[in-house]
What we know:
By secondary structure, the protein is α+β, with helices and mostly antiparallel strands. It folds into five domains: 3-131, Trna Endonuclease, Chain: A, domain 1; 141-234, Arc Repressor Mutant, subunit A (Orthogonal Bundle); 243-323, no CATH class; 334-389; 421-620, Nucleotidyltransferase, domain 5 (2-Layer Sandwich), CATH 3.30.420.10. Helix content is 39%, strand content 12%. Helix 1 packs across helix 5, helix 7 (169-180) crosses helix 8 and helix 9 packs antiparallel against helix 10. The chain starts with 18 loop residues before the first strand and ends in an 11-residue tail after the last helix. The model is unreliable at 236-243, 257-262 and 407-413 (pLDDT under 50).
Amino acid sequence: MSLDWIPARAITPKEKGNRGIIPTKKxxxxxxxxxxxxxxxxxxxxxxxxxxxxxxxxxxTISYTDSKGKLRRYTPDVYLEFIDGNRYLIExxxxxxxxxxxxxxxxxxxxxxxxxxxxxxxxIVLHEGQIRKPRWFNVWFTLGSSKCRTNDRYMDKINQIxxxxxxxxxxxxxxxxxxxxxxLGKAAQIICFAIYHGLVYIENFSTKRLSAVxxxxxxxxxxxxxxxxLYNDFNEDQINDDFKSDSKxxxxxxxxxxxxxxxxxxxxxxxxxxxxWYERPKYLRTAQWRxxxxxxxxxxxxxxxRLLKRYEENGRKGLLSRIGNAGRKVVFDEIVMRNMExxxxxxxxxxxxxxxxxxxxxxxxxxxxxxxxxSFSAFKKFIYRNSKKMDRDSKKxxxxxxxxxxxxxxxxxxxxxxxxxxxxxxxxxxIFIADEEKREYLxxxxxxxxxxCRSGMITGFNLSHFxxxxxSVLEALVQTIPPKNDYTEMFNTQHEWPIQGIPVAILVDNGxxxxxxKLADFCKRYDIIxxxxxxxxxxxxxxxxxxxxxxxxxxxxxxLPGVDIGLSRRLVNPDLxxxxxxxLTLDELEEWMHKWIVDTYHFTNRYDDHKYAxxxxxxxxxxxKTRIILPLPxxxxxxxxxxxxxxxxxxxxxxxxxx
Length: 659
């Protein structure tokens, strides 16, 4: 192990992979870090498992010599030590990455296995099929409730209330709500607290998701331990058939018509496309992946499935194009085909080139060679048939390609409860404000805000003249936690602001205000997961980015004095000076902001009636799909001392220099 539990390799921000920090007592530093969402999910499982004694991230660096004689270094992702003495070095990879780069990783993993054998450890490689099982969902579902230590007082009675024959989850929620005189959400929180800490027993905790009809038993009637050891799920040989690729089926189909000549110029590409399809495990062929797959190969879903059916029936023969069997065949000689290819490359490589410009380029080439110029439609069809859709769409700009072709990283697998995941970000408010005394215009204020990913309700915000800092972030975060009756009374809103509690995780970007030690210490103290999205990828915080966009449009619609009309309109009419119309002070803007958020935004459907407004979602007691009763978020501090400490955490420490 590395000296003094210091990680052997620092985890730095990158454009791929979510980074984050999870507070835990199973590490001597009081926290563990991760560099992918899959690592985070493994760490959550290890923190929950009572059999895990120690957890360490980036534990040690292993030196080895590769096949070319070059010295290499490799650092596994996680070290786990169990109470029974078993020790594991673990590498975490997505199965798609393992399949695509197995030869690349093989040498380093073999060196890690030899090192582990020499040090009485085991080295294993885990993928999402072995981590994101029902056990992980059950841990994630009950994680927020597990931190509510106020539920300890109910644990003595809960085993007495549960009958020896067991009772369903939803039924037990109703029983406890009546017995303890609490609402259903609080009753569900009590049950989830007991489930996470093993104070009640659930059959098949590792193999079945918690549902409304899951049977719960008291520990007095069950002698079996509530949880199995985590490494029982690490058996690499017990992989479901769904996780295996169908490459054998591909090679069997390819043997059909093996002597068939390559009559179609696209036959080789279609075989590569089929190989990629069959090498992909079935459970990984999600709707999003299939859409990216079809975009990559420039084919629609219906066309691909027809081609797949013909391939499974006829082998390679089924991949031959049937377009040439219809219509008049147009045959071009080699020189014309070469010129058309040059014209196609001119169109693809030059982002500003249009079809007409590419055709004019082709005309010049054909005139220089003295050959017949193909028709415009034939040239256009040639470009479509010989170019991938992504190459054609790249002419629409890098942002378009990022949006539609860069696969979104898997963040938290859906926030199924309120305050499970809260996104924070900062932005300029597109409005000029006025000075309180001289009434002169000031620059646009800065806003830091948080939004609950499940309900879409704003959890807290901060307006300031100054740039975003750790203090402004903490002010928005602290406002999330306690009840907000003081704000609704102070600003005289028509409705309540019902969201309150300590979030399970917050999702932020990589700005210095979010990387500040003060924010990390706050999250560590209140046991909050701090996760950073990849750099230069604001789309991974889509909810809060959308809120800022809606806020800007609302200011324009309500014609607030001093609102910025946008650079495009100011370029057209330079006489427009919105800063001269500034009339609202910062306090007046904050009052308008509270009223608009609480009375308007919280009652607005974010997706055109496809989802309930935040004010109604926050009050839901059960999930609409599974009908399972949802637990309440972790309660905010109630004692005066704890409340004072919460608000004092916002203040920056002052260093007094004695001379």
